[in-house]
Amino acid sequence: MNFRSFFCAVLIMLAASAIFSSCDILESDEFELTPVFDCPTLMLNVRDTCITGNGETGEVDGDCNCPPRFDCPDLQLDFGAPCTNAAGENGNVSQNCECIPNVTFDCPDLQLDFEAPCTNAAGENGNISQNCECI
Prior knowledge:
Blueprint: H1 3-23, E1 49-51, E2 57-59, E3 82-84, E4 90-93, E5 99-101, E6 117-119, E7 125-127
Antiparallel strand pairs: 1-2, 3-4, 4-5, 6-7
């Protein structure tokens, strides 16, 4: 940096210092920062955490509402919550946000009941026995 550039830089800094000190911009009581919110009535932004009217934790949506936060927002349910699937079967919400029916089988590993039709390893048709075998 040559002397001329240094001198110009010092001059600019002195001028800026004089302007700011003479106008009291940084020391004035009138100088305030006012935050701007997406939802001014809530004083929150979209996707901020909020408290619903029921005291539950929610998340501010695009309409500035505070709906409860769910594990599965599309279903508006949490994991393990009771649900009814499209076929009308009652079940519970899985970790994949699917409504899994509460189905119990006599033979859970096969997902079949006793006397249900089946085909064994040899390709023969049969029925499920009380021992959960296809005979």
